[in-house]
Specification:
2 domains; mainly alpha; 82 residues; elongated
Length: 82
């Protein structure tokens, strides 16, 4: 690893590490990587759309969960039990 890579933001480094790990898992699971030539642009966009819809569902679930916790904490701190 060169000096510039070592000075990288630790969050960027963590994402880079996870991308590398995910690449290995994907190759093991599907036997191909993103250089595959059997998918066209529309198919890649469909894959991306499905992944982003999953992400939106995960965000909604977490927001709902976090909102419930924050609401309960606020009730506890104000003594309001409605």
């Amino acid at each position: 690893m060169d000096e510039q890579q070592e000075a990288v933001d630790p969050n960027v480094a963590a994402v880079q590490r996870k991308l590398g790990e995910r690449s290995v898992i994907g190759l093991d699971k599907y036997g191909v990587d993103t250089t595959r030539q059997d998918l066209g642009e529309v198919e890649w966009l469909n894959h991306l759309q499905l992944e982003l819809m999953d992400a939106a569902v995960y965000i909604e679930a977490l927001l709902s969960s976090v909102s419930l916790v924050i609401e309960a904490d606020m009730r506890k701190s104000t003594g309001n039990t409605y």
